[in-house]
Protein: PH domain-containing protein
Amino acid sequence: GQDALRTADGFAMARHVYAAQTLPSEFESISQYSASKLEEVERIHVFMRKLQQIEADYAKELTKLTDKTWAVEASKRDSITSMSERSEAQEAVTLRTAWECVLQEVKTRATAIDTRAKTLSIEVVQPIVEVMKELEKMQRALTAEGRLRLKELHESHSALRKVQLLYQLEKDSTDEAEAKLKRARNLPGRKEKELKRLSERYDAASKRLSSAEEVLNRHETSCQQDQHELFQKALPETVNKLRDEEVRRVTKMFNLMLTYHGLEKEYTEGVNERLCRLGEVLRLGDVDLDVQEFMAAAQHVKAGSQPSCIALINPAAKGRLVVANVAPSKSSSAPVVKWQQRHCVLMPRRLDGAAAPPSLYLFKAENSASPLKVIKLGDSSSDEDEHGHEDAARGQRCRAHTYRVHVSVYNKANCFGLRSGSEVLHFQALNENEFVTWLGAFATLEEQASPSMNLAALSSHGYPTLRTLEVTVIDARGVTRDSEYTCHVYLDSDLYARTPPSRGSSEVNPAWSSHFIFHDVAKDIVELRLVLTSKLAAIVDWVLDSEKEWVLCLPLRDIFDGDGAPLEQWHQLGTSFINSGSDTRDEPADTGRQANASLRAQARRRNSVSTAGARLSRYSGQTARSSPTIAAPPSVRLRLRKDVMRLRPVAMYADM
Structure:
């Protein structure tokens, strides 16, 4: 039984010895594999470091190339309009501007590459070095610990083998003594003394074998415990730590690669965005602008001189317009309106770039060397009457402004008026699209010249309003002679519309029922004016061909302060007679608006008929006539309707 146990223990020990021989080799394979992965991280680090250095050198070379090519000084480059501003403005550009945009893009790309190289060094290269150092330190510590434990186990097994060898020697010696004792007992004739000596040898060998067995058992138990602790606890923990470090290594490397991908993506998106903007700017290239610059340089256009049509660069609008020209008639005393096509160019600034108000140039043709007329559209001083008093209402509208002219004035569509100071011109666009384009260009210049208000100023001065006025001229009564009568509708001193001629006399009232709608009436327009003439007149800026006129002035404040219901009533007109160099008007009868008599007085001073009379005398060649007496001024029936929409900012901006 003991031999069988010894045989089983031998097999078990053989298995332990085999495990002690195979597990260290497996641990060594794991350590070598981990070391190879660490070398892989080092190769990635070397690649990223060289890539970062190449990117930095490339950025420097691009910057040097741009600085050598770009003729603009570095201190003045910030004042150059950026590509995004040019693409948003949608303005035509020259070849020089396009080339500057290309250099801007390359310079910006060099800056972006340099920034990417620095970020790559900080966020990728340096973290890889830290990962390498940390992993290498941890791996070395764990490998050294595992190898130390394996060495201790190997030494323990070596000691066990020595004890096993001693035990085997003692066992062989005991077996030999036992065999001799058995043979001596089985042979007859053996002496007691010899049997006793053999028995003592066997007992001594058995004692030594027992002692050797105890030592062997202790070594085996200790070795088994050490091996169990190493194989079941220490080495698996070390392998798990190595595995965890491998997970950390792979995770960190993936994160760093994702960081690199984010840098590349951000750089690529920036490049694509800049290239799209550059493409938009290049598509705005206009060959005509370069030709115009060449012609302007060839003609040596100086400040204050009259430029040619082709020398006007970057206009706000340009194209053909039909201009109304007032000329004297050979057959009658009334002036004649002649329409002539002109090539018009609206410039937002002066050609030499100096600070100057916008101007409208009128040329005979596109190849004209000098303009026929130049209209300044900037601010002008406030008008004063003949007594030297400033007109406050007129002073509010000292800038040039445009307004729509109703088709009834000239029987022509797409007409608009332009007032700049005391000068008024009427234009007709070739089509509706041109009409909208020109009005939009003038409106843009007017908005740029107007002072802006913040929300606090708006709340104190009043939020902007959209005012709409509908005027229906129904009929008239009380006319004194048989003639054709026409009503001219003005807002302040600007002619907006007029009725067709209608026959009337002391027995028959002239009737029209003409309906006019005035959209977006400006806040600084103070009155609605109605002029009744006894002949169809070609009126441009208060030019009259009748020797007698009747005038009605209605303050818009009274109209827009009332309720929204249509108001239809008769209004009695005042009388005015035109003399050469003088203006004598009868006060109109009571219209129920004595509170606004000062406004009407201002209107008469602002729109002096003496100027029109002098112009009429110049056209007709007639001498001054005395003022006849009228028994009673006529009356006109009007239907007025108003609509006011107040524009308020939304709540999210009102509290800012």
